[in-house]
Design brief:
Helices cover about 65% and strands about 10% of the residues. With about 90 residues, it is mainly alpha-helical. The protein folds into two domains: about 55 residues; about 35 residues, no CATH class. Helix 2 links the parallel strand 1 and strand 2. It comes from Didymodactylos carnosus.
């Protein structure tokens, strides 16, 4: 996957087309995904009425990556107070 907005847009249009052929609609009220900018744009363009929710797993994964990037891995592992603060961000 090239992870470009136009690719996601094309995918959504194909899904809409196939739904029409099945005599139904593909018009979700809510879409849950990761935080990829191209996907967020395509969802907003193709489903402006839909609520776009970020995936909790990907959110916490991104937070932990930032803990690592900031050099806080040892503090996260060894310090209960640091771990508590970081985990509160994950709620």
């Amino acid at each position: 996957c090239d992870r470009k907005a136009r690719t996601y847009t094309q995918l959504f249009r194909e899904l809409k087309h196939h739904a029409t052929r099945l005599k139904t609609t593909f018009n979700p009220n809510t879409i849950t995904s990761d935080f990829e900018k191209a996907l967020i744009k395509a969802v907003a363009d193709e489903f402006p009425q839909a609520r776009h929710a970020g995936c909790y797993f990907h959110f916490t994964q991104a937070l932990y990556r930032n803990i690592q990037k900031l050099g806080l891995t040892t503090a996260y592992r060894d310090s209960e107070s640091t771990r508590i603060v970081c985990r509160k961000l994950m709620l």
